Amino acid sequence: MSVSARQKLETQAAENNIVKEELDLLDSSNTVFKLIGPVLVKQDLDEAKATVAKRLEYINGEIQRYETLLKDLEKKSEHQREVLTSLQQDFQKAQGLIAGKV
Fold first, then answer.
1. How many whole angstroms separate alpha carbon 26 and alpha carbon 33?
2. β-strand 39-43 against 32-36: which pairing, if any?
3. What is the C-alpha to C-alpha distance for residues 41 and 35, in angstroms, rounded to an integer?
4. Does the CA dihedral 59-63-69-72 come out positive or negative?
5. Under a CB-based contact definition with an 8 Å cutoff, are residues 23 and 34 in contact?
6. Residue 49 to residue 17: CA distance in whole angstroms
7. What is the pLDDT of residue 102?
8. Do the beta carbons of residue 56 and residue 19 sit within 8 Å?
9. For the residues of the chain, what is the DSSP string, one character each?
10. What's the predicted TM-score (pTM) here?
């Protein structure tokens, strides 16, 4: 689930980077529109650039949060694997001792 959410965020970041690049090509004489529901609304270029920059900042922060979460989950998973391996070894030793007594 975390991996899927991170991939979705990376896709959104890529899309917003494309929008940012396109906005950087414009000057103040160009008209920018924002889609709000089914309506296109005129928007100031600087406001559009600021909105995209804030969105990218938020998305990148979320990507970092998910990366940290995934690293923590990986550490916990590795620890659980080690515990399981240890328990399996203990079980096999116990079976060997019981088999030796029979």
1. 13
2. antiparallel
3. 6
4. negative
5. no
6. 11
7. 61
8. no
9. -HHHHHHHHHHHHHHHHHHHHHHHT--TTS-EEEEETTEEEEE-HHHHHHHHHHHHHHHHHHHHHHHHHHHHHHHHHHHHHHHHHHHHHHHHHHHHHHHHH-
10. 0.71
The backbone torsions φ and ψ at residue 27, rounded to the nearest 5 degrees and listed phi first, read -120, 180
Task: Kindly tell me the sign of the dihedral angle through the C-alpha atoms of 74, 77, 83, 88.
Answer: negative
Q: Could you say which residues of the chain have pLDDT below 50?
A: none
Ramachandran class of 36: left when φ > 0, alpha when ψ lies in -120 to 50, beta otherwise: beta
Q: What integer best gives the mean pLDDT of the chain?
A: 92
In the block, residue with structure tokens 């600087």: 46
Distance between CA 70 and CA 68 in Å, rounded?
Answer: 5
Which residue type, as a one-letter code, is found at position 52?
V
Q: How far apart are CA 70 and CA 55, in angstroms?
A: 22
